[in-house]
């Protein structure tokens, strides 16, 4: 009995998310018909989900391990700016378009590793360390950009990132690949197992011989790396780098991850849930715009979804506990 | 508050050093263009008012220069002040925190400056402290966002937000007037700001005059990212559009990117504010951008000029009346391919 | 049962009858009787795990008894929560002094029943009352406005006592109050206790120090295995020897496996030399040979668990060395210890050992999944197989390896932890309280398992509060008292009384 419910729990939770998404889709079709249910619009929904989606994958790992990264939005901004300075663009013209994405990824990775060092070895609470990074990265981005929008003018870069292989934009493919890789990493590798173990019981993991400090460092590095990928996607979509890129992105990302079913306290994470959470928010925005509704109403709906999802999570959790004792 | 700003800077300085070291391969952060460009300086008209007078100290406070137009506001004000050897412009660090801005004005009052030029982040929130300054005998020149009391400013320089909407709407009417079924879309800025509401109202009123209305409207946040996101959704929602007005040329970069991504060109786009980038688009016959409505980024510079005149008890030379006017509302002209050359010098970089 | 009170005229203030407290999988109290009279110091005596803490918590309203009744002034009462206990006049002073360091003395004393009018605190009145109470306790020198964090342990205890008095407590329960004090402070504490009893307050006093009980106590109740084995003995009439016998007398006999003895030439696997950890313990040296079980006996707080954790690297030693198979370990690095073949089953299984919401097999392979994996890819099939093998060998029930660890009973959780190190393969196994919370039947199984591990060549150290367990299981015993090894010798050559004597000797204030 209890064993069955332990297996049913995640399936039920996921079922709830799928149901919510289907409900939104039904509302979309009912109110906007073919304007909603068209290939073009569905691709728009996915394209808009790409940045939040990719960064949410990294965040899922951090939250599963019991941490939090508030700096991802600012790091997206910093990486987008760094990868679009004239110096970087000239280098991209001289050596190849790859200079831009590599720079963004490197900036994201280094920022993430600094977070990781502060949390794992500096023993700072993740909330404070990443809050500091949020402020510093945003400030640095403003200094580098001189508070100006940096327009990217490297055609080969757009040839790659604005292409549509098989009719689907490259950035959507990037989201799909990152999500698949994240799922594999979390569920099928020792890295993922360590992440869950550290989040579930850091002391037990340490006493079992897991190098939790080093693992924590990697986790924040991973989150920074996904922020770097997010910056590349934003560069491709907006054709510009800006210190305002990624403003408040961290909140959308955390909301998507938690609504997806990853425990904010750590110890349980689900990439599938995160992807569903991202798609729910992205579809919600789309349905509201299609119906020409006020963005303020949309914000209220978003809040209601977060509250509903978290209440549902707690309800499932308490049921699980009752059925197992 | 100032000390915390300084501290943030110091932290970022350390990060610059660390990150630069780590990213030597990736190239650093220079934004120097390869070929140096001659910076064009506009003609300076000299009137007798420009003759040096008594030394005046002017306090200047504006929101954070987090987008191109606001950056241009501050640099134009500084440039204007530099033209006068009798002006000492004290520029407070731009901030979007009304509490910080209030304390900056209090600082100016304590310091006993001769005049204050204030572009408030929120007009209503800064009214009290502006009144305080006026009562202390310091003339306040209110720029762009109006105070809630007429006594809080000696002079007010306003852009014409409603007029911007009217200009954009009138232009759209001229282009589409003969087609009452034409689909018109609007990409607004931050919806909670009065200026956005004024612009939208002017736009709707002008369209109404020629039998059109706004069929779809989204609100972005003056940032590239939000402009792209909102436009992508908008384009998805409306399979065929005839005209779009975008309130703000800074977010316009994102708007254009979304249009490009969607591969759409059946409509024309009207911008707002007047950035160099948009003016270059107007010059390109292939571009969907056909016009932009100027929202002068020189209004704080006008404010500085007025502050100097008021402090020195001078008059505006081309006016017959005595004294600097109470309110000046600037013109919101439409820039098209026909007159773009004329406006390029006052364009700003996003 | 001995009841020595011929007169019986005085009505008891507090009486507990047949108190039973059950926790899931364990019966902590199994029939406790206690009778406390006004103005007496009633000592509660018992070994670790005898049920004293549970009893205190029942009186303080933190636990609800499963059966039995509590009477105050011969009236049955229900103590639903800590506030109800205070209202009934029962105040508890816990060993871990629960004061709020950031608040002043007066604020602490009136914490939870602030003197206030419409939310505004009456500070001067609180200060005045506080001064009065402190005066009564003979500590005029403590200012009501002083921050409690700046007081020494003794001062904090005074604040707690004052808090009890501010509530007009009639029964004050003190859990090992002398453990944190030096001898002068202990004298002072005794004086205060006597003054309280002179005022008619009853004190329930818990201490391990027999000498202290002799000095202070009026009557003694002895607990053993959750039961009252002797009620209200008059201190003056009861010899120490009898008390020790009462505390240790067997009620349940465990079956211990045979000790085959360790070969003379067995190689030393674990060598610990002059190990120390700050002020917690020092100069601990021991050698464990392959196939040998060494037991550490001592009271809670004597440093036993810390010794294990320091050997393991979970705490960084401040002095001394640990060698495994002749190779020195880096201090303070757990993964180095694990790599060298040391495994630890920690004292707090739930907080230190298990991932409660993860399947059993992942708990069992927590230290080996990386090794089982191929190139970073998990091999859950192989993990399940390895776990299933151990689950069968250890008779872990229920046998499914996919259920969450939370659903297992204490004994089976312990087996899962042992299984973890069996899969890993250990040269040295450190077991901290391996049978805590494990029911009697499962204990023998765990003893057999530990012995089998040793027979297979592991060097084992067992820490336990239960002296018979250490003596029955181990080949050699180290007696730990106040962070020092006070005795080392073969387990056969020492009995429980001798160990208790060693543990209590010299620690009298």
Automatic annotation (TrEMBL), chain B:
Pfam family, one: Peripla_BP_4
Highest taxon listed in the record's lineage: Bacteria
Signal peptide (from-to): 1-26
Alphabetic keyword roster: Signal
Tagged with keyword Signal: yes
Ranges annotated as spanning the membrane: none
Record-linked PANTHER family: D-ALLOSE-BINDING PERIPLASMIC PROTEIN-RELATED
Name of the protein in question: Substrate-binding domain-containing protein
């Amino acid at each position: 009995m209890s064993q069955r419910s332990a297996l049913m729990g995640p399936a039920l939770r996921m079922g709830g998310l799928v149901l919510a998404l289907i409900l939104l889709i039904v509302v979309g079709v009912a109110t906007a018909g073919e304007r909603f249910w068209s290939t073009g619009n569905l691709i728009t929904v996915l394209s808009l989900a790409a940045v939040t989606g990719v960064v949410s994958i990294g965040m899922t790992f951090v939250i599963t391990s019991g941490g939090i990264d508030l700096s991802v939005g600012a790091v997206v901004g910093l990486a987008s700016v760094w990868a679009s300075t004239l110096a970087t663009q000239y280098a991209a013209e001289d050596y190849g378009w790859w200079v831009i994405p590599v720079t963004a990824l490197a900036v994201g990775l280094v920022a993430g590793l600094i977070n990781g060092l502060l949390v794992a070895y500096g023993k700072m609470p993740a909330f404070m360390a990443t809050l500091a990074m949020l402020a510093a990265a945003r400030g640095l981005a403003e200094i580098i950009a001189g508070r100006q929008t940096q327009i990217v003018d490297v055609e080969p870069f757009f040839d790659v990132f604005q292409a549509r292989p098989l009719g689907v934009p490259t950035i959507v493919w990037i989201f799909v690949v990152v999500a698949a890789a994240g799922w594999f990493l979390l569920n099928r590798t020792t890295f993922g197992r360590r992440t869950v173990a550290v989040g579930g019981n850091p002391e037990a993991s340490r006493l079992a011989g897991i190098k939790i400090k080093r693992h924590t460092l990697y986790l924040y590095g991973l989150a920074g790396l996904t922020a770097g990928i997010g910056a590349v996607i934003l560069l491709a979509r907006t054709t510009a780098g800006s210190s305002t890129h990624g403003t408040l992105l961290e909140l959308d990302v955390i909301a998507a991850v938690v609504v997806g079913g990853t425990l904010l306290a750590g110890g349980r994470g689900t990439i599938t849930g995160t992807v569903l959470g991202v798609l729910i928010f992205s579809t919600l925005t789309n349905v509201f715009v299609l119906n020409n509704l006020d963005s303020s109403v949309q914000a209220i709906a978003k809040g209601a979804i977060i509250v509903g999802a978290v209440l549902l999570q707690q309800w499932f959790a308490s049921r699980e506990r009752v059925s197992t004792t | 508050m100032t000390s915390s700003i300084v501290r943030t800077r110091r932290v970022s300085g350390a990060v610059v050093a660390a990150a630069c070291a780590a990213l030597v391969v990736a190239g650093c952060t220079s934004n120097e263009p390869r070929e140096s460009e001659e910076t064009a300086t506009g003609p300076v008209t000299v009137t007798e008012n420009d003759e040096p007078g008594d030394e005046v100290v002017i306090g200047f406070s504006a929101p954070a220069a987090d987008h191109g137009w606001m950056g241009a506001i501050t640099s134009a004000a500084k440039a204007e002040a530099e033209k006068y050897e009798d002006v000492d412009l004290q520029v407070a660090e731009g901030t979007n925190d009304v509490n910080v801005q209030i304390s900056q004005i209090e600082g100016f009052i304590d310091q006993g400056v001769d005049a204050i030029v204030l572009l408030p982040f929120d007009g209503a929130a800064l009214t009290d402290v502006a009144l305080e300054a006026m009562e202390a005998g310091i003339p306040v020149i209110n720029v762009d966002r109006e105070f809630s009391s007429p006594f809080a400013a000696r002079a007010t320089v306003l852009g014409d937000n409603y007029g911007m909407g009217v200009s954009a709407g009138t232009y759209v009417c001229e282009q589409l007037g003969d087609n009452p079924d034409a689909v018109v879309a609007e990409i607004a800025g931050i919806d909670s700001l009065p200026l956005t509401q004024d612009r939208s109202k002017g736009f709707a009123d002008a369209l109404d005059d020629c039998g059109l209305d706004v069929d779809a409207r989204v609100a972005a946040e003056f940032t590239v990212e939000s402009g792209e996101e909102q436009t992508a959704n908008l384009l998805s929602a409306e399979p065929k559009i005839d005209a779009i007005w975008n309130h703000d040329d800074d977010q316009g970069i994102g708007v254009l990117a979304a249009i490009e991504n969607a591969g759409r060109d059946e409509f024309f786009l009207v911008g707002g504010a007047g950035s160099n980038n948009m003016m270059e688009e107007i010059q390109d016959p292939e571009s969907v951008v056909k016009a932009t409505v100027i929202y002068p980024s020189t209004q704080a510079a006008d404010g500085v000029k007025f502050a100097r005149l008021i402090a020195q008890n001078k008059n505006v030379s081309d006016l017959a009346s005595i004294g600097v006017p109470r309110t000046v509302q600037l013109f919101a002209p439409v820039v098209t391919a026909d007159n773009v050359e004329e406006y390029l010098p006052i364009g700003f970089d996003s | 049962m001995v009841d020595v009170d011929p007169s019986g005229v005085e009505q008891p203030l507090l009486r507990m009858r047949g108190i039973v407290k059950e926790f899931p999988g364990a019966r902590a109290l199994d029939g406790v009787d206690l009778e406390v009279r006004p103005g007496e110091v009633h000592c509660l005596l018992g070994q670790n795990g005898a049920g004293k803490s549970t009893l205190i918590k029942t009186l303080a309203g933190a636990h609800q008894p499963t059966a039995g009744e509590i009477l105050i002034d011969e009236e049955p009462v229900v103590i639903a929560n800590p506030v109800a206990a205070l209202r009934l006049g029962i105040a508890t002073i816990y060993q871990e002094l629960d004061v709020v360091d950031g608040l002043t003395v007066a604020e602490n004393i009136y914490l939870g029943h602030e003197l206030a009018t419409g939310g505004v605190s009456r500070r001067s009145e609180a200060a005045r009352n506080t001064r009065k109470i402190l005066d009564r306790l003979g500590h005029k020198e403590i200012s009501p406005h002083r921050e409690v964090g700046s007081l020494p342990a003794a001062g904090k205890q005074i604040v707690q006592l004052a808090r009890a008095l501010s509530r007009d407590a009639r029964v004050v329960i003190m859990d090992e109050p002398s453990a944190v004090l030096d001898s002068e402070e202990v004298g002072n504490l005794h004086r205060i206790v006597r003054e309280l009893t002179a005022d008619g307050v009853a004190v329930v006093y818990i201490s391990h120090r027999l000498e202290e009980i002799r000095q202070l106590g009026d009557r003694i109740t002895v607990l053993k295995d959750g039961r009252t084995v002797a009620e209200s003995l008059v201190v003056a009439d009861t010899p120490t020897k009898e008390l020790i016998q009462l505390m240790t007398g067997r009620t349940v006999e465990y079956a211990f496996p045979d000790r085959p003895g360790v070969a003379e030439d067995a190689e030393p696997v674990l060598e610990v030399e002059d190990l120390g950890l700050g002020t917690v313990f020092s100069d601990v040296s021991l050698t464990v040979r392959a196939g040998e079980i060494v037991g550490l006996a001592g009271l809670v707080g004597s440093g036993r668990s810390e010794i294990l954790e320091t050997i393991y690297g979970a705490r960084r030693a401040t002095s001394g060395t640990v060698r495994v198979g002749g190779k020195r370990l880096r201090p303070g690095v757990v993964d180095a210890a694990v790599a060298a073949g040391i495994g630890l089953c920690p004292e707090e299984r739930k907080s230190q050992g298990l991932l409660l919401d993860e399947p059993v097999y992942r708990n069992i392979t927590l230290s080996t999944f990386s090794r089982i994996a191929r190139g970073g890819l998990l091999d859950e099939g192989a993990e399940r197989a390895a776990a299933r093998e151990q689950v069968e060998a250890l008779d872990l029930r229920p046998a499914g390896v996919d259920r969450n660890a939370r659903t297992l009973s204490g004994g089976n959780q312990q087996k899962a932890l042992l299984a973890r190190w069996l899969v890993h393969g250990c040269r040295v196994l450190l077991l901290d309280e391996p049978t805590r919370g494990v029911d009697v039947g499962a204990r023998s199984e765990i003893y057999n398992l530990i012995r089998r591990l040793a027979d297979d060549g592991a060097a084992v150290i067992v820490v336990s509060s239960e002296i018979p367990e250490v003596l029955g299981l181990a080949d050699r015993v180290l007696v730990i008292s106040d962070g020092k090894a006070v005795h080392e010798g073969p387990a056969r050559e020492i009995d429980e009384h001798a160990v208790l004597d060693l543990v209590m000797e010299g620690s009298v204030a």
